[in-house]
Design brief:
CATH architecture: Roll
CATH superfamily: Hotdog Thioesterase
Structural class: alpha+beta
Order of helices and strands: EEHEEEEEH
Distance between the termini: 26 Å
Strand content: 35-45%
Helix content: 10-25%
Shape: globular
Number of strands: 7
Bound molecules: coenzyme A
Length: 152
């Protein structure tokens, strides 16, 4: 039995909201994908550092899917939660939604970010375990593990 501390998914769950303006658009007047990826990476980083309690770095991004466009004046909601942990790495699932004025959310992007916890010497360091206590979380953990083993 491991003596690592265990944290809940809700302990590091992160939400970030952005208002899309003209400076975020590409030549086709849609949200520039690189801008969206930067925001998603930031959310993944904040989620992972909340879980690890250390600085973190992005090791890899898996299965980043652009599902729908976003436009100027859209409210963009980004969420991040830890779905899987290794010894020093964590997979953070990030979702990006456009939120309508009535509050309804439309998924426009999702991706798995593999984040690694770093110690004061910038070397990988052990992270707390994650409590997986629902079928949905178990499925998300299995998907993250399958992605990891397909790419490593
Ligand atoms: C990520 C990094 C810290 C890993 O360092 P390393 O010396 O290879 O460390 P290790 O081999 O001990 O791997 C540490 C963990 O990261 C995981 N990992 C490392 N590279 C990975 C990759 N490309 N994809 C997925 N996981 C990776 C390992 O599986 C291991 O996980 P575990 O401890 O949970 O089993 C190092 O490669 C690095 O600093 N890369 C640059 C990161 C960066 O600058 N990101 C910002 C992009 S601009």
């Amino acid at each position: 039995m491991s003596d690592r501390p265990v944290k809940r998914v809700c302990d590091s769950y992160t939400i970030q909201v952005q208002l899309i303006n003209q400076s975020h658009l590409n030549g086709y007047q849609r949200l520039f994908g690189g801008q969206l990826m930067a925001w998603m990476d930031e959310v993944a980083g904040i989620t992972a550092r909340r879980h690890a309690g250390t600085n973190v770095t992005t090791a890899c991004v898996e299965k980043l899917d652009f599902r729908a466009p976003a436009h100027a004046n859209d409210t963009l909601v980004l969420t991040g939660h830890v779905v899987q942990v290794g010894r020093t790495s964590m997979t953070v699932l990030v979702h990006a939604y456009v939120e309508a004025l009535d509050g309804a959310r439309r998924l426009i992007n999702e991706a798995h970010f593999v984040m690694v916890a770093l110690d004061e010497n910038e070397r990988p360091t052990e992270v707390p375990d994650i409590l997986i206590d629902t079928d949905k979380k178990r499925r998300q953990q299995e998907i993250a593990e399958a992605l990891r083993s397909a790419t490593r």
